Amino acid sequence: xxxxxxxxxxxxxxxxxxxxxxxxxxxxxxxxxxxxxxxxxxxxxxxxxxxxxxxxxxxxxxxxxxxxxxxxxxxxxxxxxxxxxxxxxxxxxxxxxxxxxxxx
Length: 104
What we know:
Order of helices and strands: HHEEEEEEH
Radius of gyration: 15 Å
Distance between the termini: 30 Å
Structural class: alpha+beta
Strand content: 25-35%
Number of domains: 1
Strand order of the largest sheet: 1-2-5-6
Number of helices: 3
Number of strands: 6
């Protein structure tokens, strides 16, 4: 699957649960993160940046707030972009509302 940006990847990751009708609280309670062949993200907990090294001493752990999602790999390149889950949730919901308005 092609993603336009780290933010797009994060939104696409959350989208199925939002469209199913899960609340923000349910999503935060049930999600941890994913690794999809060249794309990684974490919700809450810690994001780990490996800085291209196999040596754990070179790795960097970054503490995330419960409501933060961090993309740490995008298109096979290490990165660090952080977003608020509630902002992405609201964007997805707003997009659905727009689709409903224009399809009526």
